[in-house]
Amino acid sequence: MQVLLQEPTLRVTFNDAAGADDVRSLVKNGSVDLGIILRGDLNGREAGAPVLLVTHEARAIAGAIMAGHLQRLLSVHMPDVAFAQVLADLEAIGGITSEQRAWIDQVFREKATDAQTDPRPRSVGLIATESALPATAGWAVSYYAGAVAVMFLLLAGIQGAISLIEERRLGVYDRLLAGPRPIAGIIAGKFLFLVVQGTLQAVLVFTAASIFYGVNFIASFGLWLITTLVVAAATSGLALSLCAICSSRQQAQVLSTFVVLIISAAGGSMVPRFFMPPWLQALGWWTPNAWSIQAYSSALTPGSSVSSLVTAWGILMAMAAGALLFTLCVSLRRRSI
Predict the structure, then answer these.
(1) Are the CB atoms for 152 and 78 separated by under 8 Å?
(2) In Å, how far from its chain's centre is CA 281?
(3) How far is the CA of 291 from the CAs of 85, 178, 239, 286, 314, in angstroms?
(4) What pLDDT digit, counting tens, does each position of 240-296 carry?
(5) Is CB count within 10 Å lower at the N or C end of the chain?
(6) How would you class 68 by CB atoms within 10 Å of its CB: exposed for 0-12, middle for 13-18, buried for 19 or more?
(7) CA atoms within 13 A on the CB side of 201
(8) Distance in angstroms (rounded) separating the CA atoms of residues 153 and 194
(9) Distance between CA atoms of 298 and 307, rounded to whole angstroms?
(10) pTM, whole model, 2 decimals?
């Protein structure tokens, strides 16, 4: 364990009092990318692999990366354990004499095929892997469905908000402001339109994910719907605020495209955030993308923590409210929309 804690390439949260269920819960809630359970002496094999990696299907690649790290650390810092593993493997297959070489090659091919088709935890001697989620299709795709949905909502929200600039240029809002409706009412109307538009787009994205990849968002439809409305509100508010500070359609398109691509990359819509360095992961929490992905993951995962979901909802609503207030302040200062 000390080797893991001292490894500079890993960010380790260690709790000696935590049980196996606690580790599985942390992985399921998205609090950690994967869990490591030390089940006994590394030289022991009686109870199975002494190291158990608990993974999340949406971050399955993290388990493969961690398994490689563990093998490297063992070979460098604990060569006796690594050598014992080699001996155990040789004993398991009956040696590597010339007479048995062809048989060994055939056994390896069969075991590789079994590992690909067997959904149960796979043991490779020292290390076994286990999913924290039920054996249901669509977990990995659900992450990307949420990531793609929030990026599409941002891009579509920008296009809808740009109509504010065109309507301002054509004098539509000057005529509206001549009536009894205040600026706040007009902005609220456009905001509600963008929220409805974003919700319908999210329905299309997750419906496609459900049909083609088996993402079962209907089972958690209530939580999913609230999450979608909150995500649509945050993206719509950001779109309005970006367009409010622009004076022309061309300026809004250039600025919004740049901002959306940057926050989508930092927030995990393009690349999973556990691939990023710590400073970029911390920066990603300032984007609606990271909190939207977290909210969708918690909403679609059975038994996930309600507190993490409520936290994501609250932050997304705060982003929406802040963006709307900024839009209103800019519009009142200009005395136009």
Answers:
(1) no
(2) 12
(3) 42, 40, 17, 9, 10
(4) 998 888 888 888 888 888 999 999 999 988 888 877 888 888 899 999 999 999 899
(5) N
(6) exposed
(7) 23
(8) 9
(9) 10
(10) 0.71
